[in-house]
Design the sequence.
């Protein structure tokens, strides 16, 4: 289990796993306007990922903070650039608010466009 950058204080350190950050990102994406679902990065991931909230999400570490990559499916008829920009900003805000970690980068990849059910 990889750990994101840790937060340190005089009382000790707090480490937050990449999986925990990915779960937060998945919840934010699931609630985001225009996002119909998450897309697996590859067919193998679709079979191996049990937690649907983490599917299509990669969390990494950089010197500047946490890096996040999302693969999403967006609702047909919406402005894709606006949906992606809104999702990127919301993910950054919520991860920083809930974890205290600095987010260095959020990359949104739109894998498909579909009618909402």
Sequence:
């Amino acid at each position: 289990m990889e750990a994101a950058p840790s937060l340190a204080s005089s009382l000790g350190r707090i480490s937050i796993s990449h999986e925990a950050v990915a779960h937060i990102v998945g919840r934010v994406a699931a609630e985001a306007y225009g996002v119909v679902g998450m897309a697996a990065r590859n067919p193998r991931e679709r079979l191996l990922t049990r937690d649907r909230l983490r599917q299509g999400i990669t969390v990494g570490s950089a010197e500047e903070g946490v890096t996040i990559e999302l693969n999403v499916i967006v609702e047909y008829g919406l402005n894709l650039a606006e949906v992606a920009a809104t999702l990127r900003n919301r993910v950054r805000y919520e991860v920083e608010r809930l974890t205290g970690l600095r987010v260095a980068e959020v990359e949104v990849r739109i894998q498909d466009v579909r009618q909402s059910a």
Summary: The two ends are 35 Å apart (CA to CA). The first strand starts at residue 7 and ends at 9. DSSP finds three helices and six strands in the chain.
